[in-house]
Hints:
B: 2% strand, globular
Amino acid sequence: MTEHVLSYMVFFPLAGMLIVLCLPSDRHDLIRWVSAAATVPPLLLGIWLYANFDTTTTGMQFVERAAWIPAFNIEYYVGVDGLSVSMVLLTALLSFLCIFASWNIDKGVKGYFALFLLLDTGMTGVFVALDFVLFYVFWEVMLLPMYFLIGIWGGPRKEYAAIKFFLYTLLGSVLMLVAILALYFYSEPNTFDMTKLMDRSSLFSTEPLGMWPFNVWGWGFQHVVWMALFIGFAIKIPAFPFHTWLPDAHVEAPTAISVILAGILLKMGTYGILRINYPMLPEATADLAFWFLAALGAWNIIYGGLCAMAQTDMKKLVAYSSVSHMGYVMLGMAAFNTQGINGAVLQMFNHGTITAMLFLLVGVIYDRAHHRDIDGFGGLASIMPVYAGFTALAFFASMGLPGLSGFVSEVLVLLGAWPKYHALTIVAALGIVITAGYMLWMMQRVYLGPPNEKYRSLPEINGREIFTLFPLGVIVVIVGVYPRVVLDLLQASLNNINQMVIAHLS
Amino acid sequence: MDLGNVASLSLFYPEIVLAGTILVLTILDLVVANKRAMAYLGLAGCLVALGATVDLYGTEPTLLFHRMVALDNFSLFFKVVTLAALVGAIWMSIGSGEVRQVHLGEYYIVLLTCGFGMFFMASANNLLMAYLGLELVSLTSYILTGMLPHNRRSAEAALKYLIYGGVASGTMIYGMSWVFGMAGSLDYATINAAMAEGGGNQIALFMAFVFILAGFGYKMAFAPFHMWSPDVYQGAPTPFTGFLSVASNAAGVAILIRFFYPAVSTLGQEGAWAFQALPALQWTDLLVALSIITMTWGNLSALNQRNVKRLLAYSGIAHAGYIMMGLVVLNNDGLNAMLFYVVVYLIMNLGAFLVVMIVANATGREDMDAYRGLAWRGAAFPAVCMMVFLASLTGLPPMAGFIGKLLLVAAIIEGQFYVLAVVAMINTVVSLYYYWRIVKTMFLDEPAPEDGPVAATASAMPLLGALMVLTIVLGVYWAPLLDYTTGSLGFFMP
């Protein structure tokens, strides 16, 4: 059992999907409970994984490998280190909660839950895959269910949003595929094994290529491959200027899917950069980090924040706040020191939980009022006090109030970035003020003030909704007070990744 | 080994079975009233021939009929592909409402004859034989395209096909005559020997090759010789369109590879081919350019199509461009990827046309609107299958089409054609847009009040299910197929 724990985590939801497909399509509750049951084992296994994870070693743990396509040396190879285990835990938790957040879906229930479980398999798979082909397959397997989940169960402009998401992501992933193949053929002997490619990073040449424009920029093979991978990941993050799919997709997607998008899919971009670009292409990382990670990250923080401030739709505001908060991750990991990189990954985890809460909270109000217009409410705190309480917790966590998780990671990022990039750190710190601005302003307009008579009779948040929010709230507080519960997992592995690049910093 | 006429017959039994089936069908057509039985007989004949071909696979490469026809794993591979396409096409025809309007006897006879011609395209070891095989396929294709009675589109398509085909084969045979003039023979071995000695005038040889490439390219539908394909695809009966799209393409690949590889190049170390005939001219660049133009043209033209068969025609042109990438690298990895792609394309494209046929049977229409809300109109299974085939055509994992594309792109990246690789990949994204318009129409659009329920053709369901399962299975575990295509790269070397 224990030696296949990761495979179980990946394929339990897939098995659940097959069971759901066999159920009669009019037994809605049965389908919902079976889907919920399919996400429980991964969650329990995730907790077991957390308890048994060796935080002192840098290597891959719980490794499984088996030959898949021997002719190309393609393997079924999975394993986790500190970086991926945090993301696997996040995936298991959010998938479980999102099943409950999807409880009120009543159109095409069978299809919805089947696709959701397939998505779950794809997401978990991406974080545990250590073979490039396997990684790519999982990466793409997520696209199909995501397209349908947005496109069928989404809002008024769902078709546009779904195809835009699909086209953007596919563009990124095909460039990634070219990069993966280039690495495969460049490594000697050829391999798709990600851990071996990390060891062979010195093989990838940095000699400037003769071709325009790379000869002008002094880019070698390593830089070009880095860029191809980076564009693929930047689309997922989403980094400016590839972020425009995100507000559309978020606004149109059903609540649970917005949670998954913001909570997990965005993390794959930064996860990919840390897992692939950093250890495999360290020299290019050292050369390009300033412009494409640090500066772009700071720009994301400010740009996303200012865009968020201008929104009148609550979901769009949260979506742009994601653009802004993912900027901290990029800035933090470009600092190449312990605080920065740990802060970055902690920020990934925290953003996953906090934004999930925000989207769930917006979903709660949307289910009741059927609109999300910030100016259309007012005084909700007196109508729905418990709901407003949860909202306040999430808002304050998002803007980085001390004692809540967002604070810890943002401070770590800024502390890490300061010694290396003074100006950018100041800019990034301004981002916190902007975050406070749009969050508090939204708080004031929606929750405070005299209650809007129209919504006098809105029912208070119900038990199911509290059930989805409560665990996230607990995590936000615990990580805020005692961040070592997550940081301990990360440290050893991240320092290892960091060391690989530091050696090449000029 | 080099066999004479009578001795060759013992290694010729797949063709004999197929020819026998055709003759029996011709006679039965005169005496039997129930023409549907002919379909089953044709199907049985193809299956027996398929068994015979598989049985021959692995035989020592041999030349039959005084060096006219090569029997090697390469030709046997394409015979298997052709027979599989025939089986699929006949199965489709049994359930097709369109085919019911035509003279069934003639339809099946000519269809099998077309497949028979493809056998010779795959195995010709002599330019004359290659030409005859290609012409047999062309002539039967013209007839099948124009077979729908009282259908102006069908007649127009057939005429257009005939004119284009005439010009293309004229060009090709002109090129062949130049090669004959320089090599002194039509036999591939003699041509190869002449090329190894330097061939002749480089410009003349280049022109001859371009002419021949045009003829072969016309069969594969690559730009700029693709003009016939959208009209023919749209006008021909759907089962035949499905057959044409996969088998004609495969036969084009076969004849192309056999001429440009064993016949005029030399196999060197580790599967690399030396194209020594044209040392001075940039042959590879021409192929790269053709491949880029073909895939881009096909994909961009497909973007605005409203007729699904026409859309699939342009998608077929784009796929011809992808397949061409395998030629560019001049090594066995590229050829292997081409063969792999041919098989995968057979499965997914035939599947897509099968769904087109099911929808046409139920609604009598082929345009995009007929697919509106298909999944919610009682045809959820065909809609899901269509989604799988389209995902595979786009090249999304875990479908077989992804592996096909992966192998092709891997081959060109290994050959360091990065620009071509990036162009091909961006084309993939473009193609997603139009394939996904169909998926969107099927799943995301609500059926309009006038859209009635779609009753799926029952007889097509087993084939549809099988093709869908194959598309997914080969996308997850493709080692056996890869081994098979690798084994099929055994040529009779002159």
